[in-house]
Amino acid sequence: KRRNFPPGPTPLPFLGNLLEVQANEPGYEAYRKWQKQYGSVYTYWLGTKPIVSVNDYETIKETFIKDGDKYADRFHFKEITDMYRGGDYGVVETDGPLWRDQRRFTLHTLRDFGMGKNIMEERVMTEVDHLLERLEKQKGEIYIQKEFDISVGSIINNILFGYRFDEERVDEFLFVKSSITKQMKEFANPFMFLIILFPKLRYFPYFSTVFKRLFTYRNALFDFFEKQIEVKMKEVDLNEENSNDFVECFLKEKERKKGTPAESFYSDLQLQNLVFDLWVAGMETTSNTLTWGFCYILNHPNVQAKIHEELNRVIKSERKVLSSDRNELPYVNAVICEIQRLTNLLPQNLFHRTTEDVVINGFTVPKGTAILPQISCVLYDEKTFPDPYLFNPNRFLNSDGSLKKVEQLVPFSVGKRQCLGEGLARLELFLFISNVFQKFQVSSKIAPSMKKKFGTTVQAPEFFLIINNRFDA
Ligand code: HEM
């Protein structure tokens, strides 16, 4: 089988190259090593599945960007996904007309709802205000990851269901969050990975325990979403033009689509899965990136000094930073670019699938092959980002101090499957980072470890902040 694919590392029977990927947490060292050995395109194997990896930006541009439709399908392990989701539902793991319709609907809804009012910024700023208040109230050291989790979780929940996790609802949030965390841990368990590759293993001792555990967490999550949707279904006024949240928009769109070919895309199971995708993709990613940001800045005190210098010069007072200040704060933006580059949040990216036969660098890759833009290799490419493991925001600044646009900065991936929440995530990163530093001087007793843990998204090590109000007399 290997002869037909671009050459790459030799796979072991059954396991493929899995052990090499897992040998160095969080996984991307193997991809970078193979890039040096085999060049811009190679094949590695997960179990008996070949994965074609496209590693340098120029080739990614020629394929995933310029010829996007041919790389637009999603590769996933269908048997397990179907059990998990109840069939082909959601947006992350669907293809074809359903995916196109739901992706378009979601993008429009996230952009437009609020009817011209900047509802997105309002909802993010509400959480910025609450976060600053909570931080100020806490004495001693602060576990910042938890604070970001609650803030970002509240934003996505408010967008989806119209309410935030205030003090009375924090337990509800912690329950959902812990179901996701436990589930992610199960997915990172090598036994689970073997079940995904060979689903019949789930009937064997020990494997069956792991599998059942996964489904307990899955059911807890889906129950939560189902209940919120039921409440919305009872409350929604389908004739009211304005919508307060995403679920309301979906239910109204469902009504509009009745009797059209797209009617079947607006089922109850689709709504549950869509909400699940947005909640999970929208929460963990942004919260972890923020936490990594603080981890890097605490390790580089001069960066914080420069952020404060810029905020003093541009904002001039104690007022909150708004998204309209974004263009005036090139250094803050450069810091965020560097946080996203070095965090490299999805070190394995998500797999795509070719929709037809394609030829890349002279190799024919058949229709239906798993393939991916290996963004880790682009974000850590020495040619574009010399000394790639160094945290250096200056690489995103021109000599006159303005922000440098670097097209190789692709933490949200590229092409037709590019992150659907990019706009929201960028807004959150800017408003949280700029406002926390606007208000506080941040430090820690010891500099946090920068060691990454393996997972779908890289997890930051536990660390604690000490804050001082910059404007106290
Ligand atoms: C810093 C934060 C984030 C990062 C780094 C990030 C990164 C990514 C990446 C790398 C992908 C895979 C793209 C591919 O398949 O090539 C992705 C997909 C996706 N992201 Fe994000 N993301 C972030 C935040 C968000 C947020 C806030 C949301 C939702 C509101 C979101 C929703 C999604 C969805 C739904 C997909 C699947 C898109 C599709 O298959 O069509 N993400 N994201």
UniProtKB/TrEMBL annotation:
One GO term under biological process is:
xenobiotic metabolic process
Which Pfam families did the record assign? p450 (PF00067)
What cofactor requirement does the entry state?
Answer: heme
Q: Which domain of life is it from?
A: Eukaryota
Q: What is this protein called?
A: Cytochrome P450
Record's GO cellular component terms: cytoplasm
Gene3D superfamilies for this protein: Cytochrome P450
Keyword list (alphabetical) reads: Heme, Iron, Metal-binding, Monooxygenase, Oxidoreductase, Signal
Chain residues that bind heme? 419
A molecular function (GO) term: oxidoreductase activity, acting on paired donors, with incorporation or reduction of molecular oxygen, reduced flavin or flavoprotein as one donor, and incorporation of one atom of oxygen
Q: Which family does it belong to?
A: Belongs to the cytochrome P450 family.
Q: Which InterPro entries does the entry mention?
A: Cyt_P450, Cyt_P450_CS, Cyt_P450_E_grp-I, Cyt_P450_sf, Cytochrome_P450_fam2
